[in-house]
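Moderator note: this is an archived Q&A kept for reference. The question asked for a predicted structure of one protein chain; the sequence and the answer are reproduced below.
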Amino acid sequence: MKPITTLTALALATFLTGCATFQSGQEFDSSKVDQIETGETTQAQIEQWFGTPQGTGVHSVDGELLEQYTYLYSESQVKAESYIPFIGIFLGGSEGETKTLTIHFDDEDKVFEHHMSTSRHDSSVM
């Protein structure tokens, strides 16, 4: 292989891997959160809108045990600078966003309360 072709192939491979994206959880439609009505929206509607929750459990509120659904989605993208030899350790890293939706249901399987949070993260050293 000619040196210029090797260099071009290496540069292209570096560029493409610099766009690597990692996902965790199942993406959900955040705009539907505004449609959740306390005391009205049912557990079946929540499952229809958001799918199967990533986590379930029981949460105590004022001595009452409420069923809890948790939806979580995280996406991170590796920065292209991460692939620069030697200095990539300092300039690189990843950045992304995490969304968490927690819903509590009353004994009639209706929404008692819900919370949505979104956070940005950046693992850069510098």
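Archived answer notes: The mean pLDDT is 82.
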